[in-house]
Design goal:
- The protein is of the alpha+beta class.
- It has a domain of about 325 residues: Outer membrane efflux proteins (OEP), CATH 1.20.1600.
- It is built from 10 helices and 8 strands.
- A 4-stranded antiparallel beta sheet has the order 2-5-7-8, with no helix packed on it. Strands 1-6 form a two-stranded parallel sheet. A two-stranded antiparallel sheet has the order 3-4.
- Helix 5 packs antiparallel against helix 8 and helix 8 packs antiparallel against helix 9.
- The chain is elongated.
């Protein structure tokens, strides 16, 4: 084997390896796989799960406030200039020994560069040592606090709110992924149909030009077909751009980089048939199981808890504590020496705090919370009726889209037959180019209408499924 052969063989291997690597980076997804991937990676879904984790952490934060608390601290002090206290001289015996002791102490202060100009009749005195170190540990326990009891209840409600918000977000993410998936399929089908239409139209135009060159038709017929082809080419270019944007929007809904290649394994027509479900129109659920109602119910529960919280603030609080500490004194830093002497002290006690008078502040806040609770109850009742209306509207919309899908299928068949007949008549000289162009535009419109009807069936079913969903947060998630 020559050097050139070896070189080209290695180059071919590298290209093949690069192609395989690129193929591995492309995701082949069915609709179900896309939904699962979206629920795992969508930014909104991840953030809502973080909210559940935050609520769980906050729950334990509130609960731990009623559990024993132990704190310790160490204080070190060094009086660079010790304070001087003036004592009245009359407080001491007027004897020679006492005066000598006081005079000696006063001289010691002067030697330590303490400028003391004591008024007549007073004696300057320094108390304590220059340095000290104290270590203290305190154990405290909340014995009774009405606000704490209500706070624990509010933590559970907050956690439930976060869980229901997670369920609501997952339903919206599922809808967004299915919508984006369907948009990609519709855009791809639209491109395929337009390319096929352009191919057929180009063939008709070429045949018409040959007939015109033979003098058997008018130039207007050729120009009319050219106008139709220009419109098809413009729509095809637009559809190709929309296909690229649709893929990027799908990637965003899936929570993956928009540059990632994705290949869809579903077919729009088959998917529309799969989402054609007349039995769903007969389905019903208790309004209380709807996620929107459950979230409104959580809001009302939270408002009721805030009322109880304001009432609980008028109750006394009782706290117990145990303190133990030790302190050492020295004129030099000898606190780490084994000879250093420490003095212990300990305190056991309880603290009772009784709210007596707040100038109407507590009653005003309680009234405020009661009004908010009443508003939350009104919102709950409004949500009950709104959910009923949304379910009824979703069923009506779904039924309408099913009927439209059937109608558009029939319309497309009719448009195809009309276009085929007009094409035969045109080439036989029995129809004008305008009649053929009109039949072609009618066919193109029917094709797009059917694609849109398929997508509408899919989206309408998802909307109805969300309204009828009774899904709850699963702890293993």
């Amino acid at each position: 084997m020559t050097k050139f052969s070896i070189f080209f063989f290695c180059l071919a291997c590298l290209q093949l390896s690069a192609q395989e690597s690129g193929a591995q980076q492309q995701l082949a997804l069915s609709l179900e796989e896309a939904v699962i991937l979206g629920l795992e990676n969508n930014y909104s879904s991840i953030k809502s799960e973080k909210e559940v984790e935050k609520a769980l952490a906050q729950k334990w934060e509130i609960i731990s406030q009623g559990l024993p608390q132990i704190n310790a601290n160490v204080d070190y002090q060094n009086f660079l200039k010790q304070p001087v206290t003036l004592l009245p001289a009359a407080a001491f015996d007027n004897t020679e020994s006492t005066i000598d002791i006081i005079q000696t102490y006063f001289d010691g202060i002067q030697r330590n560069n303490v400028a003391v100009n004591a008024p007549e009749g007073f004696i300057p005195v320094q108390f304590g040592t220059q340095q000290s170190m104290a270590a203290t540990a305190t154990w405290s326990q909340l014995i009774f606090d009405g606000s704490y009891i209500v706070g624990v209840q509010s933590a559970r409600t907050l956690l439930q709110i976060s869980k229901n918000a997670k369920v609501k977000t997952d339903l919206e993410v599922r809808k967004a992924v299915i919508n984006a998936y369907g948009n990609v399929l519709m855009a791809q089908e639209s491109v395929d149909i337009l390319e096929n239409n352009l191919e057929n139209l180009t063939k008709n135009l070429n045949d018409t030009e040959k007939i015109f060159e033979s003098g058997l038709t008018e130039e207007e017929d050729v120009e009319q077909l050219k106008i139709t082809r220009l419109g098809i080419e413009n729509n095809l270019n637009r559809s190709r751009r929309m296909l690229e944007i649709s893929y990027q929007m799908l990637n965003l809904a899936l929570g993956i980089p928009i540059e990632t290649g994705v290949a869809l394994t579903e077919d729009l027509d088959a998917l529309a048939i799969q989402f054609y479900d007349l039995q769903l129109l007969e389905a019903n659920i208790p309004v209380e199981e709807n996620i929107d109602f459950r979230m409104a119910e959580n809001t009302a529960e939270a408002a009721a808890i805030y009322v109880r919280l304001e009432k609980a603030k008028a109750l006394p609080t009782l706290t117990g504590f145990l303190n133990y500490g030790t302190t050492g004194y020295s004129d030099k830093f000898t606190f780490l020496s084994s000879d250093q002497e420490y003095y212990d002290q300990s305190i056991l006690g309880v603290s009772l705090n009784v709210p007596i008078f707040s100038s109407g502040m507590r009653s005003s806040r309680t009234k405020h919370m009661k009004l908010e609770h009443e508003q939350a109850l009104l919102d709950l009742e409004e949500t009950r009726n709104r959910v009923k209306l949304e379910i009824a509207a979703a069923k009506a919309d779904y039924r309408y889209n099913l009927e439209t899908y059937e109608t558009q299928q029939e319309s497309l068949q009719l448009a195809q037959r009309i276009e085929e007949k007009n094409q035969i008549k045109f080439f036989e000289g029995l129809a004008s180019s305008f009649e053929l162009s009109e039949a072609q535009r009618q066919l193109y419109t029917a094709q797009q209408n059917l694609l849109q009807a398929m997508l509408d069936v899919i989206n309408a079913k998802v909307e109805l499924e969300n309204a009828l969903s009774t899904e709850r947060y699963e702890e293993e998630n």
